[in-house]
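Task card 7
Instruction: Convert sequence to structure tokens.
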Amino acid sequence: MLASTSLASLCRFSTPLLALQGSGRYLLSGLWLKAAKRDGWCCSSESTPGNRSLSTSVLPVSPALEAVGISDAEWRECCRQWGLKGLKSHLEDNLEVLERWGMHREARKKVALGTLTMLNIKPQDLERKLAWLMKRLDFKGKDVLDMVERHPEFLGFYPQSDIMPFVDMVTKEGYSREDAKSMILRHPPVVGEKDGLRTTARFFEAYLNFKEGGFMKAMVRYPQILSHSEETVRPRVLGLMDLGFTRCQVSKMIRSTPEILGVSSIDEVENKIAKFLGLGLTRSEAMEVMREAPDLVWLDFQQFVGEKLEWLRTEIKLGYVHISLILKRWPRVFVPPLQNLMETRKWFLDRGITPDGVSELCSRNIRVLVMSPKQLDDMFVFARDALKKSREEIFGCPAYFTFSLEKRVLMRVAFLDCNGEDYTKFSLDSLVLESRRNFDKRFGEARIKAFEDSWRFLSLDQKLNAIRTRSYT
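Output:
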């Protein structure tokens, strides 16, 4: 298929045509070169009327190319690999456009040698394309330049025929425009890979038991999943099974954390298991940690585990036995960046809790550390203003902060109020910590379900307003 594809098509949709080798040479796919020669874009020593050559003379590297660090020898080597005698194109003018936009020297060199789009796109068209991305998709100039630097081939996509159809496809699946923009920012080639979405999705549904719509959900989280095929996924699944995971466990891990597919090799996973063993865990315990927190399979071990272990010991003042217990029972505490945990600790300190008090809170329920400051704020304000709880009562029940305000707390408060119960007289323990089974048994499962069927359609603001006004009809 590739050999029969036109040059214009290849310039638009192929990944970077030139791959940087250890020797510093930029090599071109033989299939692509064959197609380029067939289409007449490869120059010969003598130009003929029917030859669509870009130039008939061998041109030395220009000052504009030298300015971005491309030497004469490097440029001629590229032309030789392309099978071209010389290039008269828009490349130099386009490099000036990128410089005006603020792209640094090394990035301009990478883009110049990374896609043939830079040769044939007109400077004014390049300028309009960059401006369109900022205006229509609300990208920042820095984000646009970063995308082009990481994936120069992105310049080959057309706004109306490539980018907007991708955005429309994502929104038709029930996701927001922001989700589509985020996918493009994180992995620009996803725009050109959308045509294979259905085939790839069917494979994941059949092989890894993805539910209908599950592949799209995974793609929003990890857009690179579209780049994976049966040839890359099957060996990864079998490799994880060789480590001791069952097929069912591997499928579940990939469904929840598709980033696992981006792990460079199975040896990397084995090395992480060895590091967990070095912390005193058994192999079965280490694998259980990875099953419960699959993100730890692909995240950097030292950054997300090693640094947190030291921080919990020095700042939160937890002992080794306690930390080891946390790693075994609540490994998801190690998934958020350390900065997030530090901000959560600061939230408690800013509200008058002493460092020792924060340590005590964490020792009673470590999961409070993975709650964001906004979540803590919302829970604290609701308990203080709506539930009429004192500061001591609120911070005396750290587990209260670990529940969902919308799904757990508001529903129970509204149900009690709607049925004539004074919810302010309930302690936080009995109101929130009581299991669903016991709560249903205490107040009637049928009554609770009937209330939930109407309550769940309200937005968060509507729920808060209903409780405030005591209007539930």
